[in-house]
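To whoever is on call:

I kicked off a structure prediction for a single chain this morning and the downstream step that reads the tokens threw a length-mismatch warning. I double-checked the sequence; it's 194 residues and nothing unusual in it as far as I can see. Pasting both halves so you can look.
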Amino acid sequence: MKTYPSAKDRISGYACDLSSPDLEANIHHLFAQSGDKLDHVVFTAGDELAITKLEDATLERIQKAGLVRFYAPLLVAKHAVKHLNPGPASSITLTTGSVSEKPNKHWTVVASYATGLHGMIRNLALDLAPTRVNLISKSWCGDDTVVGWDAGGSDGRVHEDHQGEVYDGGDWETGGCGGVISVDFIYCWSEKTD
């Protein structure tokens, strides 16, 4: 609102705890607050990546790893469709990560949910038609969500001697990673209808 004060009557934001056991009630309340019909719903929420060795993965940790990154987007889609303007001009866009197609050691739990979103989106497209359903699969984009990622070694964890380092994607085929602004344009493009 501070960035666009002239749009304060058209833009609103509401907090929603997606990590709570009351997940579905929280999502229902979120959409109830929005009031008017919506044109687009974009889900970019994520929590700390549950990178763990498979032998350390318990059922409780596996379920917790999927709460924000798998169960929440499914429930958001379920409730969003009731609040979207009907027709193909409206859309729901979810987000997954590149680990769904490019494996990393000790990312089995995370990759399982990330890959599962591909199947979810295909079926949501059928269930929610004619609303358009999109999935954006991105890698790290230069934000601070993965500070120390890969800096600690092959286990994918941040070691104390690498705390605060940022992986710059320097060994990628392109020589670097896309920025946050570039990724934002992908979300905007997915909302276009012409």
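Update from on-call: the warning came from a stale cache, not from the record. Cleared it. Sanity check on the structure: The helical segments are 23-34, 59-80, 108-127, 180-191.
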